[in-house]
Protein: Diaminopimelate decarboxylase
Organism: Croceibacter atlanticus
Amino acid sequence: MKNQDLLNITEAYGSPVYVYNAETIESQYKRLTSAFKKVKQVRINYAVKALSNLAILQLMKRMGAGLDTVSIQEVKLGLAAGVDPKKIIYTPNGVSMEEIEEVAALGVQINIDNLSVLEQFGTKHPKIPVCIRINPHVMAGGNTNISVGHIDSKFGISIHQIPHILRIVELTRMNINGVHMHTGSDILDIDVFLYASEILFDTAKNFKDLEFIDFGSGFKVPYKEGDIETNIEEFGDKLSTRFKEFCKEYGKDLTLAFEPGKFLVSEAGKFLAKVNVVKQTTSTVFAQIDSGFNHLIRPMLYGSQHEIMNISNPNGRQRFYSVVGYICETDTFANNRRINEIKENDILAFSNAGAYCFSMASNYNSRFRPPEVLWYQGKAHLIRERETFDDLLKHQVPMEFEPVTA
């Protein structure tokens, strides 16, 4: 996608707008599978929560990926995209037993992270294969909100509770066909992965009928030129060697599973917004855009720094700007960032907008959610329409009040 392609998209579909490059997604998928080519059976389950548009799920299916889901709605989106239910894993947290049973009835792989739920489900449905999510007590991730494998996390069953798991499995005679962990997101140090992997291998030894081991994901992607990222090739080489050793010890070849989201789609995405106003104050020059944290909340929520380019003036002299939104709260995307000179009506492109941007968008301030466009084989394809005022009213029920009397 060249700058002119992006500008043409804003002309055709307006701003703000999300744009995803299918070629980048395909390249990242190939990169990940190539890193583990020494393993006989590898399964990549795309984390739907990162970007759940139906066209993206269809693209994942086309490449051969399965899906990692956390809600029955994500499961049904996957099925609507034509994904085989056997290639979908469902890893909920704190949901009702009714939802878990409904998903199980669809033929999807169930992954349980709670002793109480494990006992209830195993008692009622001992023949349905279940994966168990372990909490390895490993602190990892780029932000406390996305670190999910530590001792105080609500996710997973503690490794110290494995005797409880084994007791439930023995009493219910349920079928455990997988073990799983996910320590966090934006993990740079591959030694953290390898350390946690050893904990998962030790856990796996307790179960004799496993089909797969799921190592989660959380690989760090670059957010700007020269930024650091997880060395996926080195990690793939080291974990593949260790995984093959474990399979030999275990007595059969298991499937090595991952569930990347951000790794596959983050760098594929651009978020395009128009500059409404350039505002000079006594200390700052603000570039105020036609968007806010209702469309891109990650800088405010996680402190993430998305690279911002002025694609209307890519060769202009660089100046310092604070890029802010139109929300009636502080919604700052960048403080005193060097950006090519900005004028009103210029289009700014935010990088790494493929993951957790549209999927976390809202109608705050009663603003519409933007459209989504997929750049595929050199052409722009609209894959979600911009919302309208009718969409805001669609599920609201007006009241008829009695007139006020004196």
About this structure: The chain has twelve helices and 18 strands. The first strand starts at residue 17 and ends at 21.
